[in-house]
Amino acid sequence: VTKLKTDSRLYIYLAVLIFLLPLKWLIAWFVAVCLHELFHFAALKMNGGKLLSFSVCIGGANMECADLTENEYLVSVLAGPLGGLALLLLGRWIPRVAICSFLLSVYNLIPILPLDGGQALHILMKNNESIKKKIYIFLNKLLKYDYITGGKTGYTEKAKRTLVTTANVNNMDL
Question: With contact defined as beta carbons under 8 Å apart, do 83 and 35 qualify?
């Protein structure tokens, strides 16, 4: 049995959007979001997964699923943004939806949890030390903080998704 959850703040957010955005763009954004989630769901079902719950909040939508291997989950995670990017091919006929899908996909591919890009990166890093090392080196160069020695994502009931980072400065572990 699939459960649908919503955050009450979502309704206030939607009401504000109705006043701020032209109706044609609001509809295009809604269609883009629905298609994005439909691409996730289609990949989930094609891989034999089960949808346990679906929640919608200000930060986006979240599907809780079961019965997927890590690779199948990775495909399901990436299906949303990749499907949205594929909609660019229909831009001549549905330009607003294509633009909204493109923006939504690019945003969702940012490698930060809980976004799709962050989930994909988490899966790729989980059991691959060489990828972890390359990403930490890249982040060190990007952030210009030469002292990072490691990092770990996790989940707790109280904090939800968490990130812990370690560093060493002047032989002092932080």
Answer: yes
Which tens digit of pLDDT belongs to each residue from 114-160? 889 988 988 888 777 777 777 777 776 776 666 777 777 777 777 77
Degrees, nearest 5: CA angle 105-106-108: 60
Alpha helices in 7-115 (DSSP H): 9-20, 23-46, 70-86, 95-108
| Cβ-based burial of 28 (10 A; exposed 0-12, middle 13-18, buried ≥19) | buried
Q: Which two tokens stand for residue 41?
A: 């769901």
Q: What's at 135, amino acid-wise?
A: I
Give whole-number Cα distances, 20 to 24, 51, 100, in Å. Answer: 12, 34, 16
DSSP secondary structure code for residue 2 in this structure: -
Q: Kindly list the strands in the beta sheet with 160-169, ordered across the sheet, starting from the edge strand earlier in the chain.
A: 148-156, 160-169, 172-173
CA separation for the pair 87, 157 (Å, rounded): 37
The whole-angstrom distance between residue 96's C-alpha and the CA centroid of its chain comes to: 22
Question: Do the beta carbons of residue 131 and residue 119 sit within 8 Å?
Answer: no
How far apart, in whole angstroms, are the C-alpha atoms of residue 11 and residue 4?
15
